[in-house]
Amino acid sequence: MRILHAVETLDRNGGGLPVAVTGLANALAHLNGGNFENDLFSPRTANPVSVDDAVAIHRTKNVRGVFEISAFNLVHQHGIWAKLPVTAGRLAKRSGLPFVLSPHGMLEPWALDHHAWRKRVALALYQRRNLESADVLHATSPAETAQLRELGLRQPIAEIPLGIEPIPPEPLDPEAVAAPKSKREVLFLSRIHPKKGIDLLLQAWAGIDAPDWKLIIAGPDNGGYQTALGTLTRNLGLDTNRVHFAGPLFGSEKDTALRRADLFVLPSHSENFGFVVPEAMQYGLPVITTTGTPWDVLTRECCGWRVAPSVDEIKSALAEAIALGDDERTAMGERGCSVIDREYRWPAIAARFAAVYDWLMEGGAPSPPNSITLE
Questions:
Q1: pTM here?
Q2: CATH hierarchy code of domain 2-163+345-373
């Protein structure tokens, strides 16, 4: 089976979207002895994420005219606002090809409220038609499934989480990981964006009396938001002994930051999946996140905290985590590792996507795979 994956960006600064799409394509390419051919279509970027050699990459701004649609068996559209993936979905329907659409959290209430007027116009002009034309919608959690139903979308929904690549067995930079540190570290590692709730985190951190702990904020700056956060940090009286802005971290620097951290926090207002949460879990870190993310497993499996996205709730979770002994935090991290190994590895996740693709190729037979929910 040959699958066309269309995505708005494969840039490593693009958050979880490029990680999700390349992870799926890479895993499918090695599933069942290579029965799935995967072609990724995305605009050219200066800093692309890595892609397996078994996956074909097409760097283009326009799918139309670049390929013969008849060469593919199925189209998987990733994201909903950019021209390239939307065009791929339209071409699939015109050609009678099965068409799967993954919104990747772009239809969550917080996301729709961000630049709301533009999105209302887009929904009215073309996007609702695009969404309704998909044969199957993909959701990563029950919450996203419910959100899609609330928008009036009635087609089958494949509820499948995303997968996580295993971490290197040894540090990529052993000397950096082993270097002495004067304080324990709370790590935030994600895009510097209003959605991520970093302002809430800074306000909460200002109320924590923990002189032997330091907050590390790492990630690429989106739209200059870090300037506003720098001003907030100074206004809160947080100096460089309490907070450090580390900038974007990739490769060995990211590996080092996660191995040196003692606690991870993602205080987002909204996340469709939030790749950094399971990444931190597999590094053995207890995690603090919010009810705006789907990670209720943190409280269910006693490997972290999931609280309301508010200053008081985040502050309370930070205080509780910091008050624990090292052994208690280590035990929480080990439980988190076990969850990832059991439920979030790409080979098993890719097999669930493959079952959905096969079902569509068979015409949507009466007995759908277990991942499919029907209205």
A1: 0.88
A2: 3.40.50.2000
